[in-house]
Structure formats: structure tokens, C-alpha cells
Amino acid sequence: MEQGTAEQEPVARAWVPAQPGPAAPRRHSVRGQVLAALRHALVGGELTPGEVYSAPALAERYGVSATPVREAMQQLAGEGAVEVVPNRGFRVAECSSRELAELAEVRGMLEVPAIVRLARALAPERWEELRPLAAAGVAAAARGDRVGYAEADHAFHVALMSLTGNRRLTEVAGDLLRRTQWPAGGSRLRTAELLADASEHTALLDALVAQEYAVVERIAREHVSAARHPH
């Protein structure tokens, strides 16, 4: 992923994962495991915004080659989580309050109208399919598990948008949410704030099942448009 053939590891900070995975994961799953571990570290604050990390150093810690690490880093760069630093590795991006507000505005423009249309188009029982995802988010929030909640939050919103049948909308909405989940200058929500966020999923489903359309729109707008991330 980095340009050039040499990487100056002394200027990049090595990171030792809190709970490293298997030393020699199967080849077909290496990239996915590395990507999942990096997501976990980013959302959990183990990788510090502004710091530069070396791909070879991370690869050594995982017991893999640098190739799957670079591939995972490339995907994360596309999601706005990291920035490429030529010949050094990657820097964890810092998302400003303005950027978070802009992301929230775009999410509101896309997701709220879609949810309102779905509210009138789907039978109430269809919304019960999303209950397990909402419950998983509440459980993670109650534990103060920011990483677990970020994944549950993402799964809930992707499942919700997938009901539109529009794959592009689902992909874009999922990407926008990912971008709000990366650390903003190291800020992190408290457990009470995670629970408040998670409870809105349940409240939204309740309103959808009850076919209370005005309430649905209000909750959706407040939830999707609120720039309260990252987790």
C-alpha cells in the first residue's frame, strides 16, 4: 500500500493488539481477520488518531505477511479511517466535528426519507425481524462495549436500508456510518450515551410496528442526523 520499496519502521509506532489472534490463520481468512482486528483497534481507541503505524510491524505481530495488512489498510483508507504515509505506513485519521456534522447531514438526507417510505410500505410484522439486531446493540451498549456496539449499530442500519431493495443505497449508508465510527481526536462516548443511542433503535422499531408515521420520522431524523459519533 505504501509507495516505494522500503519502509522506515523506526519512525512508525508498532502496535501490539490486546488480544492477538492465531499466529498462523488460514490463508483465505487472513485479510478478513486483519481487517476485523484493525477495525476493533480503531473503534476501541487502541490505535491513536494522528499516529503513524508500520504495515510490516503490524504484520509481524499477527504472524502474517505484509500483503494482507496493506490490503486491509487500503480498504480502511477508502473508508476514511487512515491515510497513507509514503514509505512509512499509515496514519490514523482525525475526524473533526465539522466532518462529523457533514456526515450526519448526508445520512439524514439519505436514510430518513427511505425509512419514512418503508414505514408506509411494509407490514408491521416485518420490523420484528430487526429486533435481534436492536437487542444486540442495547446489550453491547449496556456493557460499555464500544466496539461491539459499533458493529451492532452498523448491522442494524445496513439491515434497515437493505429493506429498500436498493443495494447502492445500502452500501452508501453503511459506508457513511463507518466513517462516523472512527475516533474524532480520541473522543469516546460514555456508556450512558451508548445506551441512549441504542435505545433509539428500539424506539424506532416500536413506532414502525405501531405505524406511527410522524413519530417514525422524528426518531429517524434525530437518530440519524445527530452527530454523536464516534462510538
Automatic annotation (TrEMBL):
Region (Disordered): 1-26
GO molecular function: DNA binding; DNA-binding transcription factor activity
Gene3D superfamilies, A to Z: GntR ligand-binding domain-like, Winged helix-like DNA-binding domain superfamily/Winged helix DNA-binding domain
Superkingdom, taxonomy of origin: Bacteria
PROSITE patterns per the UniProt record, alphabetical: HTH_GNTR
Domain HTH gntR-type per the UniProt entry, residue ranges: 28-95
Keyword DNA-binding in record: yes
Keywords attached to this entry: DNA-binding, Transcription, Transcription regulation
Keyword Transcription tagged: yes
One Pfam family per UniProt: FCD
InterPro entries: GntR_C, TF_FadR/GntR_C, Tscrpt_reg_HTH_GntR, WH-like_DNA-bd_sf, WH_DNA-bd_sf
Protein name (database record): GntR family transcriptional regulator
Organism per entry: Streptomyces nigrescens
